[in-house]
Design a protein that fits this description.
Radius of gyration: 23 Å
Largest sheet: 6 strands, mixed
Number of strands: 10
Strand order of the largest sheet: 3-2-1-4-6-5
Strand content: 5-15%
Number of domains: 2
CATH superfamily of the largest domain: HUPs
CATH class of the largest domain: Alpha Beta
CATH topology of the largest domain: Rossmann fold
Distance between the termini: 77 Å
Helix content: 40-55%
Shape: elongated
């Protein structure tokens, strides 16, 4: 008899994600001990042998709750028992002001610390890729979070199956399937209490919003949201590529010609302006649509207004028909043509 259908589905998803790697490459599974990452780790251990790859695992202890250290040690033992070598443990300190919905709140701060730890561990171990256990359910929640915050197409496109060294094989797998796979393999997942705490927006979406949508619209809402993310990602990628071409064409040491920027479609122009702001030193996580619109007003709504200040101590002003990004100054005579 073959494996349980859920086990087979997870293995197939992992097998596909490994296709671009070379024999002998080291692949790490990021494992928290939850059902998603446990099923992912077990699938990697199985598939890597057939693909000629080396398979390891890593768990990150955020230290955010009592007993996290002991739980992290149990995950390391579980990964080693699967045959994952190396089985790594890294501990991080999570800092971030504000409450559960603040930016960067606990979720964002923990995510930033986790990704930094994964990147460092992958570099030290010489790993070619790190597998992450995000599922279709996570993707649907991400899309709804973006909708609720009024985000653009890039945010609504959710998580990419491949992003640099990070691979997300399970974006087409439901959370129920990973739980079933763990049960079939005799694995005992850990339920992180934070995943049930309604203080977090993602948990409220999981517990209240998605069930309400399913009740109102019928089954298949999560799948529909994931499909929407896939479609929007293709659109966002195309627009980003076009914006990169225009940025290379228009960007000059002496600033950006306002008339040339104004001639671009808004979707392209906003992306060019965002690229310019980031290149000038703005903080990506703090650069909002409001900031981009304030820069755009210097292009399309010019009335002799002064500069606009941006995150990271960057200032954008219009002078002699060109946009200039500079360090913010305490005094300035204003932005005149």
């Amino acid at each position: 008899m073959g494996p349980h259908p859920a086990v087979a589905a997870v293995r197939q998803a992992v097998r596909r994600s490994l296709e671009g790697l070379a024999p002998g490459d080291l692949v790490l599974a990021a494992c928290s001990g939850g059902a998603d990452s446990l099923a992912l780790s077990a699938a990697l251990a199985f598939e890597a042998r057939h693909a000629g790859l080396r398979a390891g695992g890593i768990t990150v202890d955020h230290g955010l709750q009592p007993g996290s250290g002991e739980q992290a040690n149990r995950v390391v033992a579980t990964m080693a028992g699967m045959g994952l070598e190396p089985a790594l443990l890294t501990r991080v300190t999570v800092t971030g002001p504000g409450g559960a919905d603040a930016y960067p709140g606990p979720e964002a701060a923990a995510r930033q610390a986790r990704y930094a730890a994964l990147a460092e561990a992958a570099l030290t171990a010489g790993a070619a890729a790190v597998l992450l256990g995000h599922t279709l359910d996570d993707q649907a929640e991400t899309v709804l979070l973006g909708l609720g915050r009024g985000s653009g197409a890039r945010s609504l496109s959710g998580m990419a199956p491949s992003s640099g060294q990070y691979l997300r094989p399970l974006l087409g797998i439901r959370r129920a399937q990973t739980a079933a796979a763990c049960a079939a393999l005799g694995l005992d997942p850990w339920d992180d209490p934070h995943n049930f705490d309604p203080a977090f927006a993602r948990v409220r979406i999981r517990q209240r919003v998605l069930p309400a949508l399913e009740e109102a619209l019928g089954p298949g809402v999560a799948e529909a949201l994931a499909r929407t993310a896939c479609l929007l990602r293709a659109d966002a990628d195309a627009l980003d590529d076009l914006a990169a071409v225009e940025a290379d064409r228009l960007g000059e040491a002496g600033g950006w010609a306002a008339d040339a920027l104004a001639a671009l479609p808004a979707a392209i122009r906003h992306r060019v302006l965002r690229r310019a702001a980031l290149a000038a030193g703005c903080q990506a996580g703090a650069l909002s649509l409001r900031h981009i619109e304030s820069i755009d007003a210097l292009v399309t709504g010019w009335r002799g207004q002064r500069w606009t200040d941006l995150p990271g101590g960057v200032r954008c002003e219009r002078r002699y028909g060109r946009l200039l990004f500079t360090a913010a100054r305490s005094e300035d005579p204003g932005g005149r043509e």
